[in-house]
TrEMBL record:
Co-factor(s): Co(2+); Zn(2+)
Pfam families the record matches: M20_dimer, Peptidase_M20
SUPFAM superfamilies cross-referenced by the UniProt entry: Bacterial exopeptidase dimerisation domain (SSF55031), Zn-dependent exopeptidases (SSF53187)
Family: Belongs to the peptidase M20A family.
InterPro entries tied to this protein: ArgE/DapE (IPR010182), Bact_exopeptidase_dim_dom (IPR036264), Peptidase_M20 (IPR002933), Peptidase_M20_dimer (IPR011650), Peptidase_M20A (IPR050072)
GO MF term list: hydrolase activity; metal ion binding
Domain of life according to the entry: Bacteria
Name the record gives this protein: Succinyl-diaminopimelate desuccinylase
Keywords for this protein: Cobalt, Hydrolase, Metal-binding, Zinc
NCBIfam families linked to this entry: DapE-ArgE, PRK13013.1
Length: 429
């Protein structure tokens, strides 16, 4: 490490307690999504903090985005601090929402308890610990490095867990990424891994159609559920084996996600199994409709049109051998795969910072599921983006979620060293 790098790293070590209490404070604001609670509260908290650190801040409500209402407004914060001279803009983006608590906790999910070097709570690793690390990294950088150029931005955004439309997508549409050069998303990928991107997503609803009749004479109707059974059978016989053979060169983790996958997200046919209290037994009818929602994750080597054609092929094969089979298919959602180049400036910068901080080379990974990089890429038109942050990905959304304090300190050092090489004074030869 250079002298300045070492001083910066030491400054972050000295701010360890501050990093812990910031993470605890963020966890204690329950920003559950759905429905999208307390976005304004957490933005106000970050606003006070970042104003004190000399940032200009802007609170942006994603008016009209999915889920935005007066009861649950989609608030975001964007903070910016410019240096003394011109230069590039480094943007840290963290989502402020957390998922449902679920069962099985032995700690208070919104208590932010510190125990054995770990901070516990819903959102500890995904991703309030990462958000706190980026704030402390920027503040330490400002304290130690007076001579710098360009701008540092920190955003806290809504709704990542439900697609990010009221968060990063909205900001990107408003042009917030137009003047950004580098984006680091402190998602919990582990301190020594850089996430370059994610697989693609295609959601569709398949419906089989039948004909209603009395349940005692099913031969007078046409059962949509049996048609759907034939679809499932065909999927088992041909589609799932074909998907298992498609392997990607993307460094996707975990290993099982290095192939194409398909999840049957829901399946429903006929009347509701559980009727509203007091309405008695179901009536005997042949179901005339069955619906299935599929969640297909595809690889960068695959073409979205072919992904769709493959599923349609399943349905057409069933149709060819099954009299009266009729179906419809409706796309619900699509996200193309994205992967930042390993030679991109943000990748090489974070790589060097990891080497300097941890003394080893990072692993490069690709996420099995999407995150807000999709909007930065597609709407913001910015390819120079990675996810890098503290915490263990496997703990995300689980009971007793935690983030390790040592991990937070190390990743804040990596973030601060990245700021130093992108915005700091030119290095002496
Ligand atoms: Zn996350």
């Amino acid at each position: 490490m250079t002298d300045l790098q070492a001083r910066l790293a030491a400054e972050i070590t000295a701010r360890r307690d501050d990093l812990i209490s910031l993470t605890q404070d963020l966890i204690r604001i329950p920003t559950l999504n759905p429905p999208g609670e307390n976005y304004r509260e957490i933005c106000d908290y970050l606003d006070r903090r970042l104003l004190r650190s000399g940032f200009h801040t802007q609170l942006v409500r994603a008016v009209g985005s999915p889920g935005d209402s007066d009861r649950y407004p989609r608030w975001n914060i964007v903070a910016r601090r410019a240096g003394a001279r011109a230069g590039e803009c480094v943007h840290f983006n963290s989502h402020i929402d957390v998922v449902d608590v679920g069962r099985g906790w032995t700690t208070d999910p919104f208590g932010g308890e510190l125990k054995d070097g770990k901070v516990y709570g819903r959102g500890a690793c995904d991703m309030k610990g990462g958000l706190a690390a980026s704030v402390v990294a920027a503040e330490a950088f400002l304290a130690v490095v007076p001579d710098w150029g360009g701008a540092i931005e920190i955003s806290g955004t809504a709704d990542e867990e439900s697609g990010g439309f009221g968060g990063v997508a909205y900001l990107a549409e408003q042009g917030f990424y137009a003047k950004v050069d580098h984006v680091i998303i402190p998602e919990p990928l582990n301190v020594d891994r850089i996430c370059l991107g994610h697989r693609g997503v295609w959601w569709a609803e398949i419906e089989t159609h039948g004909e209603i009749a009395h349940g005692s004479m099913p031969f007078l109707g046409d059962c949509a559920v049996r048609h759907m059974g034939a679809v499932l059978h065909e999927m088992e016989e041909t589609l799932f084996p074909a998907l298992a053979l498609k392997r990607t060169d993307m460094p996707v983790v975990p290993e099982g996600a290095k192939q194409s996958t398909l999840n049957i997200n829901s399946l429903h046919g006929g009347q509701d199994e559980i009727l509203k209290p007091g309405t008695g037994l179901p009536s005997p009818v042949v179901p005339d409709s069955a619906r299935m929602v599929i969640d297909r994750r595809f690889l960068i080597e695959e073409d979205i049109d072919k992904v769709q054609a493959e599923v349609r092929g399943v349905l057409e094969r069933v149709k060819a051998r099954r009299p009266d089979f009729d179906y419809s298919m409706r796309e619900m959602h699509r996200v193309l795969p994205t992967m930042t180049d390993r030679g991109a400036p943000v990748v090489t910068t974070v790589t060097e910072a990891i080497r300097a901080t941890l003394g080893r080379d990072p692993d490069y990974v690709v996420s099995p599921g999407t995150y807000d990089q999709k909007h930065i890429d597609r709407i913001g038109k910015l390819k120079n983006c990675v996810a890098y942050g503290p915490g263990i990905l496997d703990l995300a959304h689980k009971p007793d979620e935690y983030v390790g304090v040592d991990d937070m300190v190390a990743s804040a050092q990596v973030m601060a060293l990245s700021l130093l090489s992108l915005l700091g004074p030119p290095r002496n030869p």
